[in-house]
Design goal:
115 residues; alpha+beta; Aminopeptidase; 6 strands; acyltransferase activity, transferring groups other than amino-acyl groups; Putative acetyltransferase; transferase; Acyl_CoA_acyltransferase
Length: 115
């Protein structure tokens, strides 16, 4: 409400074979980030991206929940990532396009994404 950006979602490259999805938010209202990531994934699919993945820290259950609700499948092993002088474990997640289509059809959620 003070004119600052409250959230962002992006695809980190134009590699249609495999690209990373990233997102962050300062406001954590339920469903907003899930809907934004879902909308971004739908746009990616319409623009012929074949595979999307995301990196998420193992100690970030809200972010993990966003990815799972959208249809990403978490890897079973965490990978080390160094950030701000600390080493964190991360999951690599990949998106199942079939699940995304089913989610879009049966979901009651809506989202507006301004590009």
């Amino acid at each position: 409400t003070d004119g600052q950006i409250g959230a962002a979602v992006d695809i980190k490259s134009n590699n249609l074979d495999s690209s990373e999805v990233g997102y962050w938010a300062t406001n954590h209202k339920p469903g907003i980030m899930t809907n934004a990531v879902l909308a971004l994934c739908q746009i990616a699919r319409e623009n012929l991206y074949k595979s999307l993945y995301a990196l998420v820290r193992t100690d970030n259950p809200k972010s993990i929940a966003v990815l799972e609700k959208v249809g990403f499948k978490l890897s079973t092993e965490g990978l080390p990532e160094k950030k701000d002088g600390h080493i964190y474990n991360t999951y690599v997640s990949s998106l199942n396009w079939l699940y995304l289509v089913k989610f879009r059809i049966y979901s009651q959620w809506t989202c507006s994404l301004f590009l």
